[in-house]
Amino acid sequence: MSSEPDFIIVGGGTAGLALATRLSEDPSKEVLVLEAGESQLNNFRVNTPALWPSLLATDCDWNDKTVPQEALGGKQIGQPHGRMLGGTSALNGMAFVATSKLNVDAWAALGNPGWDWEKMAPYYQKTYTVNLPEDDAVRTQLALDYMEDHIKGTSGPIQTSFPDDLNDPIPKAWLDTFKELGYSISGDPFSGVAFGAYTNSASINPDRTRSYSANAYYAPIKDSRPNLKVVTSALVEKVELEKDDSGNVIATGVQYTKDATSITAKAKREVIVSGGTYNSPKILELSGIGDAELLSSYGIPVFVDNPNVGAHLQDHTLGGLSFEVVDGVATKDDMSRQDRAALGAAMEAYTKHRKGPFTVGGNFSSALLPVPDFLTSEGKTELESLLTIPSSWSSPAPKDPGAAAFDRAHTAFIKELLRNPAEASAGYFTYAAQSNFRGSGTGADAQSTKLPGNYVTIAVSLLHPLSRGTVHIQSADPSEPPAIDPQYLAHPLDVEVLARHVRYIETIASTPPFSNLLKPLGVGRRNLGVPQNDLRKASLDEVKEYVKSAALTTFHPTSTCAMIPREMGGVVDSRLRVHGVKGLRVVDASVIPINTRGNTQTSVYAIAEKAADLIKEDLGIGK
Question: Which residues form the Glucose-methanol-choline oxidoreductase N-terminal domain (predicted)?
Answer without folding.
Answer: 276-290
